């Protein structure tokens, strides 16, 4: 077995530091920034995409060629699963809610219930 | 915090539990000291990275958990047969069914199967060990300490009581204050690290370390099912990790992911839980299918029928398992369209499963069946599991499920798939491969007694529950009305029969340890077909001295025809081995400490534990131990002894 120990893993350390920083920034955005809700969501999404990029480039050998080529196959599966989790949750969980952030929660819930009771009118979406 | 808040007080049964824990620990400590075995324990077991030994430790822990979960089950059945006796009160009953379910799935079924995979998969593909032996030890110890943490809950702090599904908002901090649910969250989190790491480890091992000539389509079926299972583990477990983490943050740091207030979405827990949970049930059934395939092919003395169809069916089942999760909450009210979609995907799973059933039957057709104990377990699996599958399809029809949901009909369904599927497979696999692990067989006569008691007990216990369910008896209730008395009583008798079967099995292990003949052949049963039987018994720690070119998925059959063995003197070379190390044990012990602190929300201690884990990781990063080599002479020596060769 060839030893490659002398090479200091600079990339990994930078990647690690960056991903921790991004996580802290995301937490700060959600917890203590004064941005409007929409912008918080957009910011977190953007940070998530950058985070995923860091993982792929710094840790997942996406740029490597040859015998240890990039694991396209696994990445494809991962994207499929991520799509199932996100799209699937939206598909199954968004019923009976209107996202009214002005304290209309109570009203929404009773709306959801009556929806459930009268679901034989084939009105699912 | 007062001591009497820390320990659970006031329950005679729990006092009995405490006394027995103290007694058992004292006995173990005494025996280890008396026979001066502490060093042996550390050097041979706690620091091992050998996949065979780790596998044995997995199986022993799983059997202990089967016992604990089984006692829980018998307590519940006793309560339901004599509801007026006040054996368990409602709170205690809630705790018992919660720990029963969690332990059986997470700490019994999975570790048992992972233990068998640990031992057998490297042997079936001709590997010397896992791809990452150190990581394998980390996996085992994090599972072990996760299980320990979870099991402590009933004497320290109070057991979780929101069901193994741990639904929000009941499991949230308003409705379930105290450490109980935290034990669930952190025990699963800790052992989940181990499961995920094992998934990665086994996948790399199977993809990268197969014997020369063994293409994917020449792998034994058990290895195939393990490979597909690792895919499911790698894709499903992160969902559980996140869900557990979110609920932990909810409970300990006051966020609102799953709470009723603050715009939390309690049902999102159910959604995430089952996105992991349904793939999880396939994680415990696919390896079982693999075990049955191996046992049936061996004792029908025939090549497995439809190898390619078998592999294809496993792949399709694995794919479908990710798109059916909503069938666990049809009654949530997502609407007819959503329910119909998941109803159809659910029913589709029955198709590849049916293909497998017919393939097993076709393998048996016109074959010369040897009725050994592992074969009996496998034969009993086919019809029993089919009943479970058919009732699954009934549950899968969304409209009908409004009636069946959360009744004993459901309870019976999943026991009919999990027990004949997973538990029978664990017994079949354990008995089948037992000689490779311990160098002697289990007594067949006593083993068959255990089988018949367990099988009859099983049907007696769970068949009546279908009718109780149709009759309207809900799950998770601790009293029953008089109209349900008779069937409940029958069911309880069946449960105790299963308990008796387990005791007979333990007796069989002890009896065989004392009286079974030793020095058996490498191919212990004489019907082996795959590479694990080509090794001598006991298996040398490097597994294979040399490997022949593999030409089909029944490698041993070919080797026998050509007179090949795994000891070809001309091909011998020094063998590179990994060194034993105590780091995995210590690291997992620190994780246990940190999790325990977090359970009680002692943040400072938890942070100290976290720092300890990071220190252990740094130590590991600078660990340049390259292992050692076993020289050719030593290999020759070992092989000659194991194969009983005296010449030259
Ligand atoms: C033909 C295959 C199967 C079908 C169609 C099927 C269908 C279903 C459905 C629709 C439910 C939900 C019922 C309800 O909550 O009302 C369910 C529950 C369950 N199934 Fe299956 N199933 C199948 C195979 C399996 C297998 C192979 C396993 C495990 C080895 C399994 C384990 C479970 C468990 C553990 C639950 C209940 C969990 C709980 O609520 O606590 N099923 N099944
Ligand atoms: Cu399911």
Describe this structure in words.
The complex is a heterodimer of chains A (125) and B (648). Chain A is an all-alpha fold and 125 residues long. Residues 102-125 of chain A have low confidence and may be disordered. Chain A is flat, with a radius of gyration of 22 Å. Chain A has helices at 10-32, 37-59, 72-93, 105-117. Chain A is built from 4 helices and no strands. Chain A has a domain at 8-64. With 648 residues, chain B is an all-alpha fold. Chain B has helices spanning 3-6, 12-34, 38-46, 51-81, 90-125, 133-152, 180-208, 221-253, 266-299, 307-320, 336-364, 373-396, 398-404, 408-438, 444-470, 485-515, 555-562, 583-599, 603-621, 632-642; strands at 575-577, 628-630. Chain B has a two-stranded antiparallel ribbon with strand order 1-2. The longest helix of chain B is centred in the first third of the chain and has 36 residues, at 90-125. Chain B is globular, with a radius of gyration of 25 Å. Chain B starts with a helix and ends in a 6-residue tail after the last helix. The mean pLDDT of chain B is 93. Chains A and B meet through helix 3 and helix 4 of A and helix 8, helix 9 and helix 11 of B. Bound molecules: protoporphyrin IX containing FE (HEM) and copper (II) ion. Protoporphyrin IX containing FE binds next to helix 9, helix 11, helix 12, helix 13 and helix 14 of chain B.
Helix and strand arrangement:
The complex is a heterodimer of chains A (125) and B (648).
Chain A: H1 10-32, H2 37-59, H3 72-93, H4 105-117
Chain B: H1 3-6, H2 12-34, H3 38-46, H4 51-81, H5 90-125, H6 133-152, H7 180-208, H8 221-253, H9 266-299, H10 307-320, H11 336-364, H12 373-396, H13 398-404, H14 408-438, H15 444-470, H16 485-515, H17 555-562, E1 575-577, H18 583-599, H19 603-621, E2 628-630, H20 632-642
Antiparallel strand pairs in B: 1-2
Helix pairs in contact in B: 4-5, 4-6, 4-16, 5-6, 5-7, 5-9, 5-14, 6-7, 6-18, 7-8, 7-18, 8-9, 8-10, 9-12, 9-14, 10-11, 11-12, 12-14, 12-15, 14-15, 15-16, 18-19
């Amino acid at each position: 077995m060839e030893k490659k120990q002398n090479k200091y893993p600079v990339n990994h350390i930078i990647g690690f530091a960056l991903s921790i920083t991004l996580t802290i920034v995301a937490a700060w955005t959600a917890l203590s920034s004064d941005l409007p809700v929409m912008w918080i969501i957009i910011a977190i999404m953007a940070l998530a995409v950058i985070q995923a990029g860091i993982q792929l480039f710094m840790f997942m050998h996406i740029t490597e060629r040859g015998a240890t080529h990039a694991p396209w196959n696994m990445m494809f599966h991962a994207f499929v699963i991520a799509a199932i989790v996100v799209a699937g949750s939206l598909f199954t969980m968004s019923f009976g809610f209107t996202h009214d952030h002005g304290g209309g929660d109570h009203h929404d819930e009773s709306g959801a219930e009556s929806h459930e009771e009268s679901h034989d009118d084939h009105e699912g979406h | 915090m007062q001591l009497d808040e820390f320990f659970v007080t006031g329950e005679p049964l729990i006092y009995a539990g405490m006394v027995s824990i103290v007694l058992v620990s004292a006995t173990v400590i005494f025996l280890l000291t008396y026979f001066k075995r502490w060093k042996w324990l550390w050097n041979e077991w706690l620091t091992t990275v050998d996949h065979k030994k780790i596998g044995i430790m997995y199986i022993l822990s799983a059997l202990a958990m089967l016992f604990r979960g089984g006692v829980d089950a018998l307590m519940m059945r006793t309560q339901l047969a004599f509801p007026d006796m006040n054996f368990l009160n409602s709170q205690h009953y809630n705790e018992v069914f919660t720990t029963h379910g969690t332990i059986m799935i997470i700490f019994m079924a999975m570790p048992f199967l992972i233990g068998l995979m640990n031992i057998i998969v490297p042997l079936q593909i001709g590997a010397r060990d896992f791809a990452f032996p150190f990581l394998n030890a980390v996996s085992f110890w994090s599972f072990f300490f996760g299980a320990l943490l979870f099991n402590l809950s009933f004497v320290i702090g109070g057991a979780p009581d929101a069901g193994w599904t741990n639904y929000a908002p009941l499991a949230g901090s308003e409705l379930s204050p105290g450490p109980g649910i935290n034990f669930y969250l952190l025990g699963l989190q800790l052992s989940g690290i181990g499961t995920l790491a094992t998934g990665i480890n086994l996948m790399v091992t199977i993809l990268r370390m197969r014997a020369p000539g063994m293409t994917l389509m020449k792998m034994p079926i058990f290895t195939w099912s393990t490979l597909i299972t690792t895919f499911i583990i790698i894709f499903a477990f992160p969902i559980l990790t996140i869900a557990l983490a979110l609920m932990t943050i909810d409970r300990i740091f006051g966020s609102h992911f799953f709470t009723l207030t603050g715009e939390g979405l309690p049902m999102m827990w159910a959604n995430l839980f089952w996105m992991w949970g349904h793939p999880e049930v396939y994680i415990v059934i696919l390896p079982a299918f693999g075990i049955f395939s191996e046992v049936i092919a061996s004792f029908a003395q025939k090549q497995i029928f439809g190898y390619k169809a078998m592999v294809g069916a496993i792949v399709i089942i694995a794919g479908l398992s990710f798109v059916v999760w909503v069938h666990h909450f049809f009654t949530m009210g997502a609407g007819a369209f959503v329910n119909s979609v998941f109803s159809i995907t659910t029913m589709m799973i029955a198709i590849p499963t049916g293909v497998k059933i017919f393939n097993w039957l076709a393998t048996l057709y016109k074959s010369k069946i040897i009725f050994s104990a592992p074969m009996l377990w496998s034969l009993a699996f086919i019809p029993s599991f089919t009943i479970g599958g058919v009732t699954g399809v009934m549950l899968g029809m969304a409209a009908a499920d409004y009636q069946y949901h959360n009744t004993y009909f459901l309870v019976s369904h999943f026991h009919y798939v999990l027990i004949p599927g997973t538990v029978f497979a664990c017994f079949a696999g354990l008995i089948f491969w037992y000689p490779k692990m311990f160098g002697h067989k289990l007594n067949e006569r006593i083993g068959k007694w255990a089988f018949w008691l367990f099988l009859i007990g099983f049907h007696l216990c769970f068949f009546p529950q279908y009718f109780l369910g149709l009759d309207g008896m809900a799950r998770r209730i601790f009293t029953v009305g008089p109209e349900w008395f008779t069937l409940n009583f029958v069911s309880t008798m069946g449960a105790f029969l299963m308990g008796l079967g387990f005791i007979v099995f333990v007796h069989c292990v002890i009896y065989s340890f004392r009286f079974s003949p030793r020095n058996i052949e490498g191919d212990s049963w004489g019907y082996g077909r795959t590479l694990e039987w080509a090794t001598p018994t006991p298996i040398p720690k490097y597994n294979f001295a040399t490997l022949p070119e593999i030409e089909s998925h029944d490698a041993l059959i070919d080797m026998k025809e050509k007179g090949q063995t795994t000891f070809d003197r001309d091909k011998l070379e020094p063998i590179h081995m990994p060194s034993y190390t105590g780091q995995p044990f210590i690291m997992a012990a620190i994780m246990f400490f940190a999790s325990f602190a977090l359970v009680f929300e002692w943040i400072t201690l938890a942070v100290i534990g976290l720092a300890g884990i990071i220190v252990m990781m740094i130590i590991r990063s600078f660990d340049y131990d390259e292992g050692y080599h076993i020289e050719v002479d030593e290999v020759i020596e070992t092989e000659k002894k194991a194969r009983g060769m005296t010449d030259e």
